[in-house]
Design brief:
The complex is a heterodimer of chains A (about 350) and B (about 325). Chain A is of the alpha/beta class and about 350 residues long. Chain A contains eleven helices and twelve strands.
Chain lengths: ~350, ~325
């Protein structure tokens, strides 16, 4: 873990206290996660619903509801983001940190045309920008993300675009103020598989052209594998495993990662030849975290200690290149994990 | 053909929707949701319809259960029942044999009803209704079959997780001993670790009961794993049909190629210039406007449905 990483998250926890005591206890959405992101790197975060992947990344531009309790540290190029006053964090949103969201159709005002959305966005960092200038800038950005005939389409409203086109516009808007960190929270989940592949290819090209860092969040481990340099597997508000994408997929160190990979059908498997390995049980409830490993109730290799005590974070062999480092949270060593 | 005896035979099925609705709607502009579609589902077979959103998969399923009325073509069920002509009691008993499982279990179960009521509210009106006490026993047995407990009968859908709710949904469809199950995106709203449980459950049930399944999916990996044959749909037409086990490495149609390349992460970044021109008739190939191989003949003439061997059919001039 480098002191000089572009983005460093340390021991981040997010808790949502109940609005009303009768509604039950607090929800422990994120329970102490640490990771780093280098410049020009794509970090993929994988997890099922309730694993804390979205909550932990929404904490970076402080987009969580006001009653969320955030502890720990987030350093963007050495500047602490946790606990910053509202006015200060605003100067980061858009200018340093861009965000694209899951459902492109729902993240626009249906009554505002695209040209005006760009004008508003650009005026945030350049007050007093003229309509003409913002249009030129919007056309340049829309060409960069591959929207055909951008000049003609600036007057169009969101319903006149397809889902894939809206997501391209979303990416252009995120880039409009020259951010160097892009947070993509399930950007392709609502899109068709052919469009999904186009958006992934577009994000990769933008990373290469602009040398920005991307946090790519998804529940689909295969999709994350196609885009990310490193991968982070979350479960029950904790990081279960982290490492270079190719190595993690080839030899997972955590039983959860192994099970997750085995549970998804692949093209060379068929029900008549190989039954699907299914993970028994259900996803943990974040309002009732277990004292031990969150995966223990579903793990096929569980031992008595797993249920009572949180397994320590283990580290793979020291690598000269820090981006090749691997870590996982399990009582087993990497070589021992075979399900 | 792997399955000799067909259970469902769809021939030349066509459904178009008027683009405008309401009292002042102009007539004459149509969306051809399903366009001259033909396929069969064998007894005990799992047949998948895959394709992008808007290609007509769900419309086809709804036509089969008569939620929509067809515009042309026929659907035969069993030996020679023409589904489109069924009325009254016959239609009701047909609908007991064909059951629909919906995508989102959170939205397809009434939150105010107990699980027992969810399971039996349709059964109550069936000619086979065995009386409340016997029905409760049957419901309890079905719940055990799908991996829930008989004591869950008196709980409500909100007490269950997403995977468990999908089990309730499946139990509801099984109660009347159907012959065909229509599974419309049944696993796409579920977490990956839960998805496997539901797929394995459906596979067990299918084997035990000899059910046929129409499996609608957009996830090619799930369809390739779970089904016997796959039909690839594009804009209301079948583009290619083949055995699920090897369609991923042995496909001929450029559209199938695009789908599989996208799913494996091998597709390149094409500029998003895909427009869908209005089509009023069956002239030309539906995919021609996106096809890298298209020439004049593709726009002028609709390709034939060709058998290229081994249960493998394709609709393309170039292959």
């Amino acid at each position: 873990m480098s002191e000089h990483s572009f983005l460093r998250v340390e021991n981040l926890s997010v808790t949502f206290p109940p609005k009303d005591a009768r509604l039950g206890g607090p929800v422990f959405a994120v329970r102490g996660v640490s990771w780093t992101l280098e410049k020009g790197e794509i970090l993929g975060i994988v997890g099922e619903s309730g694993s804390g992947k979205s909550v932990s990344t929404s904490a970076i531009p402080s987009l969580l509801p006001a009653h969320a309790e955030v502890t720990g540290d987030i350093f963007l190029e050495g500047k602490q983001l946790v606990g910053l006053p509202k006015e200060d964090i605003r100067s980061f949103r858009g200018r340093r940190i861009g965000m694209i969201f899951q459902e492109p159709g729902r993240s626009y005002d249906p009554l505002q045309n695209i040209g005006s959305v760009f004008h508003e966005t650009l005026a945030n960092s350049r007050p007093g920008i003229s309509r003409q200038e913002s249009e030129e800038e919007a056309i340049r950005l829309l060409t960069e993300v591959g929207l055909p005939q951008p000049r003609e389409r600036l007057g169009n409203y969101p319903h006149q675009f397809s889902g894939g086109q809206l997501q391209r516009i979303g990416i252009a808007l995120a880039l409009a103020q020259g951010c160097d960190l892009l947070i993509a929270d399930e950007p392709t989940t609502a899109l068709d598989v052919t469009i999904q592949a186009q958006i992934v290819a577009l994000l990769k090209r933008i990373r290469d052209d602009r040398a920005i860092s991307i946090l790519f969040i998804s529940h689909n481990i295969d999709l994350v594998a196609t885009i990310s340099d490193r991968i982070l597997v979350m479960y029950g508000g904790l990081v279960m495993e982290e490492g270079p994408t190719r190595q993690v997929l080839a030899s997972p160190a955590h039983p959860y990662t192994t099970a997750l990979l085995a549970a998804a059908p692949r093209f060379d498997s068929h029900y008549s030849t190989s039954p699907l390995l299914s993970i028994p049980g259900k996803v943990p409830d974040p309002s009732r975290p277990l004292p031990g490993c969150p995966f223990a109730p579903r793990c096929s290799r569980v031992m008595s200690g797993c249920r009572t005590e949180l397994p320590p974070l283990r580290w793979g062999p020291q690598e000269a290149d820090e981006s090749l480092a691997r870590s996982w949270r399990c009582v087993f060593d990497r070589e021992e994990v075979r399900l | 053909m792997i399955f000799v005896e067909p259970l469902v035979r769809v021939e030349g099925l066509t459904k178009k929707f008027n683009l405008e609705a309401g009292f002042f709607a102009r007539f004459g502009k149509f969306v051809h949701a399903v366009n001259d579609l033909s396929f069969t589902i064998g007894k005990g077979e799992t047949y998948a319809l895959v394709g992008e959103s808007g290609c007509g998969k769900t419309t086809t399923a709804r036509l089969i259960v008569r939620m929509y009325e067809r515009d042309a073509g026929t659907i035969f069920f069993g030996r020679d029942t023409d589904v489109g002509l069924l009325r009254g009691r016959d239609l009701r008993s047909y609908r007991e044999k064909v059951k629909y499982v919906f995508q989102d279990p959170a939205r397809s179960l009434n939150p105010r009803m107990s699980v027992y009521n969810v399971l039996t509210s349709g059964y109550r009106w069936s000619s086979r209704w065995p009386g409340a006490r016997r029905a409760r026993e049957e419901a309890a047995l079905i719940l055990e079959e799908v991996g829930l407990a008989p004591s869950d009968l008196d709980r409500r859908p909100a007490d269950f997780s997403g995977g468990q709710r999908q089990r309730i949904s499946i139990a509801r469809s099984l109660l009347m001993q159907p012959e065909l199950l229509i599974c419309d995106e049944v696993v796409s709203a579920l977490d990956v670790s839960i998805q496997g449980q539901i797929l394995n459950l459906l596979q067990d049930i299918r084997e035990k009961r000899g059910l046929s399944i129409l499996f609608i999916a957009h996830d090619l990996k799930v369809a390739s794993y779970f089904c016997d044959r796959i039909g690839v749909m594009y804009r209301g037409e079948l583009m290619e049909e083949g055995r699920a086990q090897d369609l991923y490495r042995n496909h001929g149609h450029p559209y199938t190629q695009l789908l599989f390349a996208s799913a494996t992460g091998g597709a390149e970044e094409a500029p998003n210039s895909v427009t869908t021109p209005q089509r009023n008739s069956a002239h030309g190939c539906a995919f021609a406007h996106r096809c890298p191989l298209a020439d004049n003949s593709c726009y002028a003439q609709r390709p034939e449905w060709k058998n290229i061997g081994d249960d493998h059919f394709i609709r393309c001039h170039k292959r």
